[in-house]
Amino acid sequence: MVTLVGVGGSKLEYLDDPQVRAQLLRRHVTVQTTRLGSREAARADFEGVDFVFPSGQPTAELVQQRRQQAQEYASAHRVFVSPIVLATYREYAETLRAAGLARPQPGQDPGRPIYYDLSLGPFLDQGRAGRTWDDLGIGRQGVSNGNTVLAQTSNVCAANSAATYLGLVAFMTRGGVPDSEEDGVELARQIRPLLREQGLPTRAPDVLYFIPEGRGLVPVIVIYEHQYLAYQLGRVDAGAGLDEDRVLLYPDATFQNEPTLVALTAEAQWLGDYLTTDPELRRRALELGYRVLDPSLDDSSAELPGFLAERGVPAPSMSDQYTRALLPDVPTLEAMITAVGDCPPIPG
Predict the structure, then answer these.
(1) What pLDDT digit, counting tens, does each position of 148-206 carry?
(2) CB within 8 Å of 285: residues ≥ 6 apart
(3) CATH second-level architecture of 2-81+257-314?
(4) Confidence (pTM)
(5) Which of 187, 206, 316, 347 is 20 to 30 Å from 303 by CA-CA measure?
């Protein structure tokens, strides 16, 4: 029996899944995991650690850079894809729709869509102008909310989802990536109010979103697509039916977020290869809402829509018509994260 020790972000929930653990056990492998924020994992002490599993590429690159500087082993493995989305409630999505900022994705029930496309630039303009949900007309939905129209995130110092959203906001504000670290820091200071105006909620915003009190705590929150899909699949499997009050907004500028396992030992390299190729594990990833990579590992496959249809859950659009946003290079993004969140540095 081989025991592999790992640290990482929210995607460790995949390795902690009982069915995934059972499949690994059939290959005489167990895993011991410690969940941190993705950037916290990059700052961790790697002594005795076999792998790091952050939720996105920038943090995986930080881990690889640390290992390269220390002249130590590292091997990166892209496991699956889960884009960041803005999770909200129907009354907020319909308010955005009435204001011309959101529209139902094609193929949805026109009366009760659960997936919307969001015009991210105009949405951000509402926050810049200090407009509130009441200003936007949410009263017509029977709701009063005097807070600024913003999406909340988890802690940008710790979480990949928040850092990725920062990158998207920066891309939409600039129309591209910063020219230098100095330029990036100046841009980060400009957009900081869009990320910090309403404070930073807990590390697990999806938990807040899915509890009954979520409406009053996080009316619009940045999460990963798979978290929402897994929630809906769980409801349908339990016989509760779709939750049509909770809906997703897909920004019209997107970045393909790829959780990446960085193996620090040869044994963990086997794990990375196995996660990406074993049919049972690929199927389980679908059941947990992830977009699995196609056999070439070049792009997310078309398996998810078919799987969701089998289970009675509508599928979001797999359109490639969104603007493909670019994140700043890793040093610039790190400088921007630090400027927005007053974060401790990643060790060299």
Answers:
(1) 999 999 888 888 888 899 999 999 999 999 999 999 999 999 999 998 765 554 556 67
(2) 14, 79, 80, 292
(3) 3-Layer(aba) Sandwich (3.40)
(4) 0.92
(5) 206
